[in-house]
């Protein structure tokens, strides 16, 4: 972690002290990022085992901007970026990954899950009933229309979610990403049980 922080020369460092912990175990910054933190590396360190280098853009970056960041960050490692084929058997090596992540609020998803009593709206599975205390208050919230298909700034409503178990969630993501997928999956499930 220290080496990464030194190598990348982050513009800002933060840890759990700068964050609020939420009931789902996630951290959120207590205050908004300062303008100076955008378009520069940020070091996130939550405990001895978790450290992240984050790179925030003020608006959706172009492909060229993303490519530039990858090349710049990858060049900080010895030997620069490598193709995966060069080390086909090697495990646990450091790799640079860059993801564009759509921001979302967990508040709506949590509300929807609570209202559905954490029961899958496709197969009726309930983790609490099956696993006891370990499974209490657990379910997943599926975006009926994938976030990638929505225009930036689209308001998400409760009706845009379905509460599902992990298995149904995986199956929904294997489908076409249509609003009708949960109903289609429910029909498939009923047909398969006959």
Written overview of the protein:
The structure is a single chain. By secondary structure, the chain is α+β, with helices and mostly antiparallel strands. It folds into two domains: 2-86, no CATH class; 106-192, no CATH class. The protein is built from six helices and seven strands. It has a three-stranded mixed beta sheet with strand order 1-4-5, with helices on one face. Strand 4 (41-47) and strand 5 (50-55) form a beta hairpin. The longest helix is centred in the middle third of the chain and has 12 residues, at 63-74. The radius of gyration is 21 Å and the shape is globular. The termini are far apart. The model is unreliable at 80-87 (pLDDT under 50).
Give the gist of this structure.
The protein is of the alpha+beta class. Helices cover 28% and strands 16% of the residues.
